[in-house]
Amino acid sequence: MSPGIRKRITHWFSGSLPLLISIVAPLLLGQSNQLSGERAFFHAQRIVSFGPRPPGSAGIKRAQRYLTDTLKNYPLEVEHQNFLAMTPNGEIPMKNIVARTKSSPNDFIILASHYDTLLMKNGVFVGANDGASSTGLLLELAQLLSSQKWKFSLWFVFFDGEEAQQLWTAQDSLYGSTYFVERLQARGQVSKIKAMILMDMVGDKDLVLENDTTSTAWLMALVRDSAKELGHGRQLGDTPKAIIDDHVPFLRVGIPAVNLIDYEFGRNNEHWHTPQDTLDKISPKSLQVTGEIVLKTLKKLSEKYFQVGSSQQ
Ligand code: 1BN
Ligand code: ZN
Fold it and tell me: What are the residues whose beta carbons fall under 8 Å from the beta carbon of 208, sequence distance 6 or more?
């Protein structure tokens, strides 16, 4: 083969690679009625491939397109919640992405993750664990759960603007979840939300989910019982920690909420909010374990409110 032709083929192949991956990978990974940590990890890889994703950036726009295009393949109604956040860095356009099951039950359960990444000026921060891991898992849960019949409506909520623009304070953080809860209040929907389950930093190869005391106690007990019953008790932290995250705006208006978070990322948290938050530190296995705990917790919630679990359609 002449060098010219080889160059043209190489050029075509590298330009078309992302497109090829997006066509071939779902075919290889498929969709199924079993939770797949591998598929969740694949989504996380795609999200990381878009680069840093601070609010308003080119990277977050690519992530928004990916989330929307993926969710539209499932039997869900997808809404973009656009808003302008007042931040110490000025007004920034942000977007929560909300996907709801089409069934009509009057009680809702929210599963959530943030998909933005920390703004880092002196380094490249792609948030494989902090942003992509829980978002990949939430996409996988959306695929799985939207094809099952539940007694409550399930909302899959992807928050923008979880991270601070400058320094984490009550005002400079949690922009997406705060706006989302304001909309719930304006629509009179607060009392319909039976529970909110947040996932954050759930990809760490050495997964230890915190005993977060900010979370609603009975809901955290449900999560921990679920983990133990599944044989994942070793993935539970014992030391009580009070963590402020996207579940807090929900707690403030009386919605039961729980945070599944591993806040010890590397020894002494050395990878957290650093350029070392990369794909090699996270695993499909941790996403599988967290996903199984969420599924079991959902079954327990179903039993608590309706004395039943789910039934396949
Ligand atoms: C989680 C991931 N958070 C920020 N990125 C929220 C948080 C802040 C959790 C401080 C624990 C401590
Ligand atoms: Zn963070």
Answer: 235, 236, 237, 262, 264
Helices and strands of the chain, counted as H and E runs: 8, 10
Ligand 1 atom nearest to CA at 273: 5
Contacts of residue 6, defined as CB under 8 A and 6 or more positions apart, other chains included, come to none
Q: Which of 212, 214, 244 has the most ligand 1 atoms within 8 A of CB, as the residue to mutate?
A: 244
Amino acid residing at 161: G
CATH architecture of 3-306: 3-Layer(aba) Sandwich (3.40)
Q: How far apart are CA 238 and CA 279, in angstroms?
A: 27
Structural domain boundaries in the chain: 3-306
Residue 294 · residue 52 · CB < 8 Å: no
Residues 59, 53: Cα–Cα separation, whole Å? 5
Measure the CA–CA gap between 76 and 85, rounded to whole angstroms: 27
Q: What is the pLDDT of residues 69-82, one digit of tens each?
A: 999 999 999 999 99
Could you tell me the pLDDT band of residue 313, with boundaries at 50, 70 and 90?
very low
Question: Residue 83's CB: how many other CB atoms inside 10 A?
Answer: 18
Name the residue among 176, 311, 198, 190 with its Cα closest to residue 252: 190
CA distances from 214 to 64, 252, 305 (A): 29, 11, 23
The dihedral built from the CA positions of residue 32, 36, 102 and 64, taken in this order, carries a sign that is negative
Per-residue pLDDT of 230-271, as tens digits, reads 999 999 999 999 999 999 999 999 999 999 999 999 999 999
Report which protein residue has its CA nearest ligand 1's atom 4.
163
Q: Taking ligand 2, which is a single-atom ion, which protein residues have CB atoms under 5 Å away? A: 130
